[in-house]
Design a protein that fits this description.
The structure holds two protein chains of two kinds. By secondary structure, chain A is α+β, with helices and mostly antiparallel strands. Chain A has three domains: 75 residues, Roll (Ubiquitin-like (UB roll)); 61 residues, no CATH class; 46 residues, Alpha-Beta Plaits (2-Layer Sandwich), CATH 3.30.70.20. Chain A contains six helices and seven strands. In chain A, a hairpin with a 6-residue loop joins strand 6 and strand 7. The two termini of chain A are 30 Å apart. By secondary structure, chain B is of the alpha/beta class. Chain B folds into five domains: 107 residues, Glutaredoxin, CATH 3.40.30.10; 213 residues, 3-Layer(aba) Sandwich (Rossmann fold); 84 residues, Ubiquitin-like (UB roll); 90 residues, NADH-ubiquinone oxidoreductase 51kDa subunit, iron-sulphur binding domain (de novo design (two linked rop proteins), Up-down Bundle); 56 residues, Alpha-Beta Plaits (2-Layer Sandwich), CATH 3.30.70.20. In chain B, 40% of the residues lie in helices and 14% in strands. Chain B has 25 helices and 19 strands. Chain B has a five-stranded mixed sheet. A four-stranded mixed sheet of chain B has the order 2-1-3-4, covered by helices on one side. A four-stranded parallel sheet of chain B has the order 9-8-7-10, sandwiched between helices. In chain B, a hairpin with a 5-residue loop joins strand 11 and strand 12. Chain B starts with 6 loop residues before the first helix and ends with a strand. The relative contact order of chain B is 0.09. The chains are: A alpha+beta, B alpha/beta.
Chain lengths: 207, 619
C-alpha cells in the first residue's frame, strides 16, 4: 500500500492505482471527459488536472494517468486547479457550445461566461470513440486525422470502411453527440440554470 | 577495404591516409552548406575540379566540397590551405584566376577577400576575419576540413580517437562520470544534464537486452539550421558521439531521426554510415572490443512536434507522432517499450571532444552551470547572417554586434528572439544577458536549440507573437485541449489586436490563458507555446496598448492600422512611386505633387521604399 495525502486527508492506496482512482475511492470528485474505466487513459482533455506537491514543488498533473506515489500531497480543488479547470471548460465550450455535458460542467464548476470566440465543431476530440472502437470493439475503424487545430476523428481517407460494424459503441461513449442542452438559452450562450444548486454540491464550503 | 580489427590497425590506416596526402601542396575547401548551395556552389566546385584537372595539377591540389563554414552571408565561400586564404562571394568567372594564381602560386586575389566593414581593409586569413575571430569554434571549425562523403577526411583530422579511448581505456561508468564532470547539458533546448539521462538509462533493466540511443535531428525552429550543418557537414562526429554514449549506456542499437526536409543530410548520413560499417566502426565487435552497435536512419514525416521525445519515438515506431504522458520515463520505457536515451545532434557532437580532452579542460569553456560552446544560427535583421559558435556566457550584445556586425541599413535594434517558438523576445535593455541556460530562462526566454532571430524597428512585436502562435497552431499535434484550443483562441485574440479590433480585456484574457496553457498542457510544446506572447507582453506591452487604444502600429506592419499619403510639400513629382505602385493607386503628373488613392491602396509600402525624398508618409 502507498500512503499519500489527498485534500488534507491521509489515505492509503493500492500501488497500481492512479491518483484519480485513489481520489474516487475515497469519494473525492474529480471531473473527467476523456477518461473511461476500461479504456487506456490518454490525458488529453486535461480536465482532471490536480495539484501535486512533491519535495516542496507543486505542479499540475493529469490525475487519470499519474500513478500514486508514496508521500505526495494531492490537492484536487485548490485555487490553481479551479482556475485551470474553468479555463479548460471555457475553451471546450467555445468549440462545442451546446453540449449538455459541457453545459452541466460549466454550472458545476462556476463558469458563467464564455470569453472566447465560439466555433461549433460538435466534437471535443476526447478520443473516447477511437479508443472504444480499437480497444473494446477490436475494430479500429476510426482514428485521428490531420494535426493541430485541424485535428478530427474520421475513417480512413474519409470513406466508409468495412472495419466498421456499425455497433454504435462510439455513439454510446461520446460525451457530446447527445441531445443538446435544453436550458433557456440561445446557441453559444451558457445555460447555468442549475448553477446555484450544483455549486453548493460541488463546493460545500468555500476554502 | 578490410575491416579494422584493433586500435593499432586504425592508427595504421590513419597514417596511411596522411602519407597519401603528403603530396598535396594545397587544399581548396569549398563550402557546400545550405546557404552556399543556394548560391550555386555546386557549379563552382565542378568548375574548380575541372580547371585543376585541365591544369594537370590534380596530383598536388586537393579540391574538396565541405559542409557549412558558417559565414552564410558571404557565400559562396572558399578556404585555401595551408595559407588559410579566405575568399567570399566567389562566382564562376573567378574560377580560372583562383586556380592560376592562388592554387598554383599561393597568391591572394584582393577582390575576393573579405573587406573589414570598419577599416575597409582586405583581410587575407580566415582566422583574422572578425566574424570568425571572436568565435570559439570547437565543433564547427572541423567542417571546413571534411568532405562529409569521405570517412578518410574525418580520420585524417584525428577522428574516432575518442572512441578508441572510450572502448579500450575507460569503463562505461567512467565515460558517464566524465560527461557528468564536464557538465554537458542537452543542446536541444531544455538543457537537461546529459549524464543524468545516461545514468538512468544505464540503470534501467532491458528485458530482452536491447537498449537504444537516439539522435534528435528533427530541427524545426524557424530560422534554425545548426544541427543540419553539423550532421550534414560532419556526420562522423555525431556517429562517434553516439558510439561512445551507447557504450557508456550499454545500448546496442541507435536511430537518427532526421526531418523530412533535409534530404542532403540524409544522403550524407547514409554514406557515412555505410563507410563506417565498411571499415568496422559500426556493427559487430567494433575494433575488436567486443562491443556491438549499429545505427539506423529514420526520416520524419514533417511535423514539428516530432522533436518532442515521446512523439519522436512514436514516429520511429510508425505511429502518429504524438507525445504521451511521461510518468514512466523514456529511460525506462521508451522506443518499443525499451530503455531509451535521446540526445540532440549538437549534444552528441560534444561527446568526442569531452572524451578526447577530458572534462577538466572542457569545463574551462563556458560558465559554471553551462559549459562548453553553443552554436547559434544568427538570422533576421543582421549584417552577418550565419552560424556562430560561441563559448557559453558570451553576452547577446557581443554575439549580435561584434560577431553579427549589428543591424543593417542603419536601422535601430529592437529585440532578439531566442529559443524558437518556445522562446521569447529579449529587448535591448537586456542585451548584456549572457547566453547560458539559466540566465536566458530568467529573462523569460530559453536557450532552445539555437535559433537567434534579430529584429529591428520595422518589426511589430504583436505581429511577431501572432506569427509564432500561428506557426504553433499548425504544428501542435492537437491532442490536448489547452494547446489545441488555447492556441486557436490566442490566435483569434492576436488577430483582433493586429487588425484594430482588440480590447484591453483581451490582454488580461491572453495572460490568463497563457498561464493555464503553461500549467496544464501535456508536453513541452504546449507548456512553452505561450512564451512568445508572454515575453512580448512583458517587454513590449506599450505596443499592444498602442494597437488597442490608439489603433496604431509603430512598426508599420499591421496593415489595417496604417495608411500611406504623400506630403505635397516634399513631393518633387519624380513619378518613382507611381511607377513602382503595383496596383496603380498613385495619381499625379510629372513635376507635380502625387496623390495616393486610399480606396485602391493595398498598403504594401513599395512607394514608401521607392521615394528618395521622404515624401511618402506612413501613419
Amino acid at each position: 500500500m502507498v500512503k499519500l495525502i489527498i485534500d488534507s486527508q491521509s489515505v492509503e492506496a493500492e500501488e497500481t492505482w492512479t491518483v484519480l482512482e485513489a481520489a474516487r475511492y475515497y469519494g473525492i470528485d474529480i471531473p473527467t471527459l476523456c477518461y473511461y474505466e476500461g479504456l487506456s487513459p490518454t490525458s488529453s482533455c486535461r480536465l482532471c488536472v490536480v495539484e501535486v506537491i512533491r519535495g516542496g514543488r507543486s505542479r499540475l498533473t493529469a490525475s487519470c494517468s499519474m500513478p500514486v506515489q508514496e508521500g505526495i500531497e494531492v490537492r484536487t480543488n485548490s485555487e490553481r486547479v479551479r482556475k485551470a479547470r474553468k479555463v479548460i471548460i471555457e475553451l471546450l465550450l467555445a468549440s462545442c457550445p451546446n453540449s449538455r455535458t459541457l453545459q452541466c460542467l460549466a454550472s458545476k464548476y462556476g463558469v458563467t461566461k464564455i470569453r472566447f470566440k465560439p466555433e461549433d465543431r460538435g466534437c471535443i476530440l476526447c478520443g473516447l470513440c477511437v479508443r472504444m472502437c480499437e480497444e473494446q470493439m477490436q475494430a479500429g475503424a476510426i482514428g485521428f486525422v490531420y494535426r493541430g487545430v485541424d485535428r478530427e476523428v474520421a475513417m480512413p481517407f474519409h470513406t466508409r470502411h468495412e472495419a466498421c460494424r456499425e455497433c454504435g459503441a462510439c455513439q454510446f461513449i461520446c460525451p457530446v453527440c447527445e441531445m443538446p442542452c435544453q436550458g433557456p438559452m440561445q446557441p453559444g450562450q451558457l445555460c447555468n440554470a442549475c448553477l446555484d444548486a450544483v455549486q453548493l454540491e460541488a463546493f460545500p464550503s468555500k476554502d | 577495404m578490410a575491416k579494422i580489427k584493433s586500435p593499432a590497425m586504425l592508427e595504421e590506416y590513419r597514417n596511411e591516409i596522411l602519407r597519401k596526402r603528403e603530396r598535396y601542396t594545397r587544399v581548396i575547401s569549398l563550402c557546400g552548406g545550405p546557404g552556399c548551395h543556394a548560391q550555386h556552389c555546386n557549379e563552382i566546385y565542378e568548375a574548380v575540379k575541372k580547371a585543376v584537372e585541365k591544369n594537370g595539377s590534380s596530383e598536388s591540389v586537393m579540391v574538396r566540397k565541405t559542409g557549412c563554414h558558417g559565414f552564410c552571408e558571404m557565400g559562396p565561400i572558399a578556404v585555401i590551405q595551408p595559407e588559410g586564404i579566405f575568399y567570399c562571394k566567389i562566382s564562376l568567372e573567378d574560377v580560372p584566376e583562383i586556380v592560376e594564381r592562388t592554387l598554383e602560386k599561393g597568391e591572394a586575389i584582393e577582390r575576393l577577400l573579405y573587406s573589414d566593414p570598419e577599416s575597409e581593409k582586405a583581410i587575407i586569413k580566415e582566422s583574422k576575419v572578425p566574424f570568425y575571430a571572436k568565435q570559439k569554434r570547437l565543433l564547427m571549425s572541423m567542417n571546413e576540413h571534411i568532405d562529409p562523403g569521405n570517412i578518410e577526411d574525418y580520420l585524417a583530422q584525428g577522428g574516432y580517437r575518442a572512441l578508441v579511448k572510450a572502448l579500450f581505456e575507460m569503463e562505461p561508468l567512467e565515460i558517464i562520470d566524465e560527461v557528468d564532470k564536464a557538465g554537458l547539458r542537452g543542446r536541444g533546448g531544455a538543457g537537461f544534464p546529459a549524464a543524468s539521462k545516461w545514468r538512468a538509462c544505464r540503470k534501467a533493466i532491458a528485458r530482452d537486452g536491447i537498449k537504444y540511443v537516439l539522435c534528435n535531428a528533427d530541427e524545426g525552429d524557424p530560422g534554425a539550421y545548426m544541427d543540419r550543418s553539423l550532421l550534414e557537414g560532419n556526420p562522423h562526429l555525431v556517429l562517434e558521439g553516439m558510439l561512445i554514449g551507447a557504450y557508456g549506456i550499454g545500448a546496442t542499437e541507435g536511430y537518427i531521426y532526421v526531418r523530412h526536409e533535409y534530404p542532403l543530410t540524409v544522403e550524407n548520413l547514409l554514406i557515412a554510415l555505410d563507410q563506417a560499417r565498411e571499415v568496422g566502426l559500426l556493427g559487430k565487435n567494433i575494433l575488436g572490443s567486443g562491443f556491438d552497435f549499429d545505427i539506423k536512419v529514420s526520416i520524419g514525416g514533417g511535423a514539428f512536434v516530432c522533436g518532442e521525445s515521446t512523439a519522436l519515438m512514436a514516429s520511429i515506431e510508425g505511429r502518429i507522432g504524438e507525445p504521451r504522458v511521461k510518468h514512466i520515463h523514456t529511460a525506462e520505457r521508451g522506443l518499443f517499450n525499451r530503455p531509451t536515451n535521446l540526445n540532440n545532434v549538437e549534444t552528441w557532437a560534444n561527446v568526442p571532444l569531452i572524451i578526447n580532452q577530458g572534462a577538466v579542460k572542457y569545463r574551462k569553456i563556458g560558465t559554471k552551470t553551462s559549459t562548453g560552446t553553443k552554436i547559434f544560427s544568427l538570422v533576421g535583421s543582421i549584417n552577418n547572417t550565419g552560424l556562430v559558435e560561441v563559448p557559453m556566457g558570451m553576452t547577446l550584445r557581443e554575439i549580435i554586434f561584434d560577431i553579427g556586425g549589428g543591424v543593417p541599413k542603419g536601422r535601430k535594434f529592437k529585440a532578439v528572439q531566442t529559443g524558437g517558438p518556445s522562446g521569447g523576445c529579449i529587448p535591448e535593455s537586456l542585451l548584456d544577458t549572457p547566453v547560458d541556460f539559466d540566465a536566458l530562462y530568467d529573462v523569460g526566454s530559453m536557450m532552445g536549440s539555437g535559433g537567434m532571430i534579430v529584429m529591428d524597428e520595422t518589426t511589430c512585436m504583436v505581429d511577431i507573437a501572432r506569427y509564432f502562435v500561428d506557426f504553433l497552431c499548425d504544428e501542435s499535434c492537437g491532442k490536448c485541449v489547452p494547446c489545441r484550443e488555447g492556441l486557436k483562441q490566442m490566435l483569434f485574440i492576436l488577430e483582433d489586436i493586429t487588425q484594430g479590433r482588440g480590447s484591453l480585456d483581451q490582454l488580461e484574457l491572453l495572460k490568463e490563458l497563457a498561464e493555464v496553457m503553461r500549467d496544464t498542457s501535456l508536453c513541452g510544446l504546449g507548456q512553452t507555446a505561450a512564451n512568445p506572447v508572454l515575453s512580448t507582453l512583458h517587454y513590449f506591452e506599450e505596443e499592444y496598448i498602442e494597437h488597442i487604444k490608439k489603433k496604431k502600429c509603430r512598426a508599420g506592419v499591421c496593415k489595417p492600422l496604417i495608411s500611406f499619403s504623400i506630403n505635397a510639400k516634399k513631393c518633387t513629382g519624380c513619378m518613382a512611386c507611381r511607377k513602382a505602385c503595383p496596383v496603380g493607386a498613385i495619381k499625379g503628373k510629372k513635376k507635380e505633387a502625387h496623390v495616393i488613392q486610399p480606396e485602391k491602396c493595398e498598403k504594401c509600402g513599395i512607394c514608401f521604399e521607392a521615394c528618395k525624398y521622404g515624401a511618402v508618409v506612413r501613419k
